[in-house]
Amino acid sequence: MGSTAALRELQRELENKANDLSKLQKVPRIIRLGRSILFSLELDLLNEDANVYKLIGPVLVKQDLAEANANVRNRIDYISDELKRLDSTVQYLEEKQNSKKEAIFKVQQRIQSLQAGKGKA
């Protein structure tokens, strides 16, 4: 009876660790999606005589292309810093995922050894 309770406890532990891993795996995907959105600025593709507008409240106001480029460059600098921060977060979460996978593997091994011992008895 003791090995059955231990087996159930290990299976519960395995489920909890698998759920934790699943939650952790979603976060880097969301961060990568945000990263691709941040790089979607394409002012460099415009001709010099192209009209550029800036949204101020509910109104679009015509803006000089050079000024728009300067604003975008400042935003890109900010975005680059944010991306570095997000990359380090992704790396940390991936390391945490690997740790959870190792823990899951160890629990699975313990379950298998308990089941093998129970099968022999």
Automatic annotation (TrEMBL):
A molecular-function term among this protein's GO annotations: unfolded protein binding
The record's listing under CDD domains reads:
Prefoldin_6
Q: Which GO terms describe its biological process?
A: chaperone-mediated protein complex assembly; protein folding; response to cold
Cellular component per GO?
cytoplasm; prefoldin complex
Q: Which UniProt keywords apply?
A: Chaperone
Instruction: Please name one Pfam family that this protein belongs to.
Output: Prefoldin_2
- SUPFAM superfamilies (UniProt xref): Prefoldin
UniProt cross-references to Gene3D superfamilies, sorted A to Z: 1.10.287.370
Matching InterPro entries: PFD_beta-like, Prefoldin
Per the similarity annotation, which family is this?
Belongs to the prefoldin subunit beta family.
| Matching PANTHER family | PREFOLDIN SUBUNIT 6
Q: What is this protein called?
A: Prefoldin subunit 6
